Amino acid sequence: MKLETLGRHILIEYYNCDEEVMKSHELIEKYMNEAAAAANATIVNSVFHHFNPYGVSGAVIIAESHLAIHTWPEYGYAAVDVFTCGDTIDPWVAFDYLEKAFGASRSESIEVPRGMTEKIRKFHPRGEELGKIVFKPEEN
Amino acid sequence: MKLETLGRHILIEYYNCDEEVMKSHELIEKYMNEAAAAANATIVNSVFHHFNPYGVSGAVIIAESHLAIHTWPEYGYAAVDVFTCGDTIDPWVAFDYLEKAFGASRSESIEVPRGMTEKIRKFHPRGEELGKIVFKPEEN
User: Fold this and answer.
1) Are B104 and A120 in contact (CB under 8 A)?
2) Residue A139: pLDDT above 90?
3) Considering only CA atoms, which of A2, A82, A76, A72 is closest in space to residue A36?
4) Taking CB atoms and an 8 Å limit, are B7 and A139 in contact across chains?
């Protein structure tokens, strides 16, 4: 059985992470960008914010969708999203990369298909005319 | 029964949206920021990108987590995430706002709890000492 979707989205909970990493705007931004690159993503832009007194939030926009993070250093917890489109990128590489970088002793994940092509066609008034519904990489 | 979590995350699929809106970097950025404000979020920063030839991707970092979007104008489809923390913000207001702004004729959603406090405590080596695990708003 093959599920046709535009994207796949992994929702990750990293537990018992390194508190110093979770606190560091610089390290979180670095590791999130490195995780995107390791997964073979094309990085477009990113935005990160350090909260007072604790925690970092941010997102990396990639040509193939995005990565996002919110950290709670005081609890050793980080919520991460890795949303990817197309077949040239492997979100689980980013998962593994961050698990190691954060020193998480436990990780949990859910994978959710995003943009199921059958539904996009079904709910579109000219669904039959849409042709093959696929993720197309950006043109230069 | 009451579930204790740091955040709640709504994954939304908007179908059969207005193609002109889905194409417009300017409108997508405007509507995403307005949706965040309508939900009572504190906007920290945002980043949006227009793809060649089609589609817009972006994220709005809010003090209470983030909103993210990817649009496929040619299919009338948008994938949106609304991730919020704390009790002062209602992610469903953002859901309703965007559904209307995009002219989506069909919307589907999943809500996923993020940062379940029982698990954070369970997987933390000093879990019993963590005190009450709650989302704390940023201090000025």
Assistant:
1) no
2) no
3) A82
4) no
Residues of B in contact with A46 (CB under 8 A): 47
pLDDT in tens, A43-72: 999 999 999 888 999 999 999 999 999 999
pTM of the model: 0.97
Within 10 angstroms of residue A140's Cβ, the number of other Cβ atoms is 4
B50 lies within 8 A of chain A by CB? no
Cross-chain residue pair A13–B114, CB shorter than 8 Å: yes
Amino acid code (one letter) for A128: E
In terms of Cβ atoms closer than 10 Å to its own Cβ (0-12, 13-18, 19+), residue B3 is exposed
Residue A53: partners with Cβ closer than 8 Å, 6 or more residues away:
B139
What contacts A91, CB < 8 A, 6 or more positions away?
Answer: A8, A10, A39, A82, A83, A84
Nearest-5° Cα angle at A54, A52 to A60: 95
The one-letter amino acid at B61: I
Looking at residue A140, its pLDDT comes to 75
B92-111 residues touching A, CB cutoff 8 A: 105-106, 108, 110
Q: Which residues in B lie closer than 8 A to residue A14 (C-beta atoms)?
A: none
Q: Report residue A72 as tokens.
A: 């709670």
Residue A114 has pLDDT above 80, yes or no: yes
Residue A109 has pLDDT above 90, yes or no: yes
Instruction: Tell me what the mean pLDDT of segment B124-129 comes to.
Output: 94
Nearest residue on chain A to B17, alpha-carbon basis:
A124
Residue-level pLDDT at B53: 87
Chain A residue at shortest CA distance from B132: A75
